[in-house]
Amino acid sequence: MSPRARRSRLRWIGVLLVGALLASEIGLRLLTDSDSKWNIRLGTALAFDPVCHFRLKPNHRLGEGVYTNEKGFLAPPGLTPEKPNDRLRVIYVGDSVTALPVPGFYPTQVESLLAARGVRVETLNAAVPGHSTENARALFETEVSHYDADWLFVALGWNDLGQYGPEGLPYKRLRAGYTLNPVQALLTHVYTLRFAYAASDFLRRWQPSVDRPLSPAEEALYDGYYPQHYEDNLRAILTLAKQRYPHVVVMNLATLTNDSPTPSELARAHYPTGMDRNMRKLDRLVRQYNGVVAAVAAEQHVPMLDLYGLFDTHEARASFTDSCHLDRAGAARIAALVADQIAPVAR
After folding, report:
1. 3-state SS assignment for residue 340
2. Distance between CA atoms of 197 and 208, rounded to whole angstroms?
3. Whole-number pLDDT of residue 167
4. At what angle do helices 216-223 and 279-300 cross, to 10 degrees?
5. What CA–CA distance (Å, rounded) separates 221 from 224?
6. CA distance 45 to 96
7. 61-63 and 66-67: which strand pairing?
């Protein structure tokens, strides 16, 4: 091949590479930007929402005997903003912990427990799998808070913790207002590099879970982290809730993580980005977030249900299917705690 032909081939290869990178960048911006209507996990029960980014699809079957209503809530069809006079209405704001397992998530079990005590309940479960406090706050302020109720329970934090922790994806942390170093800040504007970062983290999921002490650098990183976005959003939700509802309760994070995990607990644990599958990091972060819940609850004079303490034994933690999700028996433990909160006041 002549030098001229070689140069021509190299130019064409360069053009194709640049074209591929541009196509990748445009495609990823359309499919993965948080404000894009295309950023929905296709094939799931979620639909795009211009206010809270995504929510459950309306009139959708989630599992055996479980359907969303015409608004996409886990609630009776035709639910009116005015609450009925012949029963209590209970609203839940949460994430997948409150919407799973299907069937058997704890709000439905609360209904059954209270019915056995002679208390009729109508439930509006506004929990959406994947919602952070940012998503839930938007949905609550614009829609859920328009519904009258006797009780409101708030259980949020896992998606905040997963996305915005000290080792989370830089572009997500930047969106939540956290400071990045100059290199991280620059890379957040290149979506193709975001994808490569996320892909490398996906591969790490195949590595075994460990229980390893943090290095001095890791200790400093976690010591210097405070989930300000979480505190701000949680405070905003509770502030509005207290204006709307006579009874408002917040719940902290229940988890599989602990400081002396069994092999089974290590095997079931799953981790957010960047934690190297180290349970000590995750347990530390859960405790930090629970500290925020306790502080905001005290500031707002709102009772807090201690779900973390509810699962403080290896026997209780057997109900976890991963770091935060529960089987039906685990959901029953939460349901009993919620029902015990409501029943004395309902009499």
Report:
1. helix
2. 20
3. 83
4. 20
5. 5
6. 12
7. antiparallel
Return the DSSP state at 325: -
Peptide bond before residue 208 is cis, with ω within 30 degrees of 0: no
Please, what is the end-to-end C-alpha distance for the chain in angstroms? 91
Q: What is the chain's length? A: 347
Q: What's the token pair of residue 317?
A: 């933690």
Burial readout 156-168 (b: 16 or more C-beta within 10 A, e: otherwise): bbbbbbbbbbbbb
Q: What is the pLDDT of residue 242?
A: 98
CB-count burial class (<10 Å; 0-12, 13-18, 19+) for 234: buried
Distance CA 230, CA 225 (A): 12
Long-range Cβ pairs for the range 307-314 (8 Å, 24+): 307/155, 307/251, 307/252, 307/253, 307/254, 307/334, 307/337, 308/252, 308/253, 308/254, 308/255, 310/254, 310/334, 310/337, 311/254, 311/255, 311/256, 312/258, 314/262, 314/265
Cα gap 40→200, rounded to integer Å: 21
Q: What is the pLDDT of residue 342?
A: 97
DSSP state of 72: S
For 113-164, the pLDDT digits (tens) are 999 999 999 999 999 999 999 999 999 999 999 999 999 999 999 999 988 8
Distance of CA 45 to the CA centre of its chain: 15
DSSP string, 201-249: HHHHTTSPPB--PPPHHHHHHHHT---HHHHHHHHHHHHHHHHH-SEEE
pLDDT value at position 181? Answer: 57
Euclidean distance between CA atoms 58 and 125, whole angstroms: 13
List of the chain residues with pLDDT < 50: 36-43
